[in-house]
Write a structure and sequence with these properties.
Number of domains of chain A: 3
Distance between the termini of chain A: 23 Å
Oligomer: heterodimer
Largest sheet of chain A: 5 strands, mixed
Structural class of chain B: mainly beta
Strand order of the largest sheet of chain A: 5-6-1-7-8
Largest interface: A-B, 21 and 14 residues
Strand content of chain A: 15-25%
Distance between the termini of chain B: 6 Å
Strand order of the largest sheet of chain B: 1-8-7-6-5
Number of helices of chain A: 15
Shape of chain A: globular
CATH superfamily of the largest domain in chain A: Reverse transcriptase/Diguanylate cyclase domain
Number of helices of chain B: 0
Number of strands of chain A: 13
Radius of gyration of chain B: 13 Å
CATH topology of the largest domain in chain A: Alpha-Beta Plaits
Strand content of chain B: over 45%
Structural class of chain A: alpha+beta
Shape of chain B: globular
Helix content of chain B: under 10%
């Protein structure tokens, strides 16, 4: 049997690199990667969090996920850039397109990570490591950013390999290399082991991936259940999933949330913010070519406790209006009249919009609505979100379209490869 | 010699195969006066895909102030905008 070969391609500081390449293309004198720079939040108001950072920013002690305000305290000369979700989707797509020139089986695992099945095409291209290096060099030259490529015999090990020394490197991690390259790593580095699992393992003396690999699987199963077996297998490099269907299908849901500039007390103003969030969610949903079958909302009160509610729809939709109707009624059911600090809207159970069942009575209405949504999308894509706004936002000070970066659209931390 | 890129008005031709060719462009000189410059020759054409953003880069040659000058025009496919570089 032919030996399986899989690549994991991981973009180095993705958002920041893409932003830097785009700016250089437009004549920027400074490469954001060479100065302390971050992507995230709203640079003018210094709100929001750091989504990506340059190496000089990392050296200044800035961490991903930290609030912008704190980042500026650590480094006053920091350049902060507002995230541009559309650009990142374009960059991600360009990466997938390039990889598909090498193999028909490419899985976009997140916006900045892809798996490539190389087994069947290795005879065509030659030695996997040489090809991985050539791919890396091409991405750098043509697309203007660098990647790490992990080469191994399954997706898990390939992913671990791409996490080794960065940036712009190719690493291998074949099963025979596990003991020397993977087992000495701290247990928190293992795919699937997060904040919750790490202390549980450390409590029973498992500090490195090797400790877990050599532990008795029965004990791990007893402590952590089925999930324990999964990560024990991972520690031993056992993972045999295939490259799954390519493209946007890996998006499980689309969400958007925002901390409000001030606490709100009335249903009407909550509706406004929810509409603004829904506008962006629905736009992104349409952009992926999907319909949703489930709508959910989340509310965080001024005391920062969180509540959520969801509804499975009897139909599938991508209409801003329909989604917003569901959002409103969910809010009515959920809200306990306490001041609201944070709101979120999310859609999931996505299906391709090729097949849609129109509600009989409203068919004409739906088609009209659909054309309206499409036209508004086109205008906004071309001329910006402020081009066309709903009248209800006038003089309210509420941004008509609130947008996150879209990172939550991809499974950032899913335990299944 | 300007090095900052800027957006410019361009008159271009589009053929049946979808090829785009800049013919003339208009710039404002330092006096605020608009001048039209004819693109005499396209020396080189290259498609740029940096960060996945497609721009067609034209290396052009024109006579300006009785002098032969080489410069770059870039056409951004997603925004339909033209940029003038290295002028």
């Amino acid at each position: 049997m032919k030996k399986r070969v899989v690549f994991h391609v991981d973009v180095n500081s993705a958002y920041l690199s893409w932003e830097a390449a785009y700016r250089l293309q437009h004549g920027a004198k400074v490469d954001l990667r060479d100065v302390p720079a971050i992507v995230g939040g709203d640079p003018e108001k210094r709100r929001g969090i750091v989504l990506a950072k340059s190496l000089p920013a990392k050296r200044a002690g800035i961490k991903t996920g930290e609030v912008l305000f704190k980042a500026f305290q650590k480094c006053p000369t920091l350049t902060a850039v507002r995230p541009d979700y559309r650009l990142y989707m374009k960059s991600s797509q360009a990466l997938v397109d390039l990889l598909k020139e090498y193999s028909p089986e490419v899985q976009r695992f997140s916006i900045d990570e892809c798996f490539v099945e190389f087994t069947d095409v290795s005879q065509l291209w030659g030695d996997p490591v040489d090809v991985a290096k050539a791919i890396g060099a091409r991405i750098k030259k043509e697309l203007g950013f660098t990647v790490n490529i992990g080469v191994s015999s399954n997706k898990l090990l390939a992913k671990v390999a791409s996490e080794f020394e960065k940036p712009d490197k190719v690493h291998t991690l074949f099963p025979e290399e596990m003991e020397s390259k993977m087992w000495p790593l701290p247990i928190g580095e293992l795919f699937g082991v997060g904040r919750r699992t790490e202390p549980k393992l450390k409590n029973i003396g498992i500090m490195t991936i090797g400790d877990l690999a050599k532990a008795d699987p029965e004990i791990i199963r007893y402590k952590l259940g089925k999930f324990g077996t999964l990560i024990w297998n991972y520690a031993n490099g056992i993972e045999d999933s295939m490259i799954s269907e390519p493209g946007v299908e890996s998006v499980k849901g689309i969400g958007n949330s925002s901390t409000l500039p001030k606490d709100i007390y009335t249903k009407e103003s909550a509706y406004l913010y929810l509409l603004s969030l829904t506008e962006m969610v629905a736009m992104r949903l349409r952009d992926t070519g999907n319909l949703c079958g489930l709508v959910s909302i989340s509310i965080r009160s001024h005391e920062l406790d969180r509540a959520g509610r969801q509804r499975r729809l009897f139909y599938n939709t991508d209409s801003t209006k329909q989604i917003f109707e569901e959002v409103k009624s969910l809010f009515d059911e959920l809200w306990d009249e306490r001041p609201v600090r944070h709101l979120g809207v999310r859609v999931s159970k996505l299906v391709p919009n090729e097949y849609r069942q129109l509600p009989l009575m409203e068919a004409e209405q739906t088609e009209k609505q659909e054309r309206l949504d499409q036209t508004i999308d086109k205008l906004r894509i071309r001329f910006g979100n402020k081009t066309i706004v709903r009248g209800s936002f006038l003089h309210t000070g509420v941004k008509p379209v609130m947008g996150g970066v879209g990172e939550e659209d991809y499974p950032m931390m899913s335990f299944e490869l | 010699m300007r090095t900052n890129p800027r957006e410019v008005e361009v008159l271009a031709s589009f053929d049946q195969s979808g090829n785009v060719r800049p013919l003339r462009f208009r710039i404002e000189d330092d006096m605020g006066e608009k001048r039209t410059i004819k693109v005499d020759r396209i020396i080189q054409l290259e498609v740029e895909k940096l960060a996945g953003n497609i721009m067609i880069k034209y290396r052009c040659q024109s006579i300006m102030n009785n002098q032969e000058r080489v410069f770059e025009l870039k056409y951004e496919r997603d925004t339909y905008k033209w940029y003038l570089f290295k002028m």
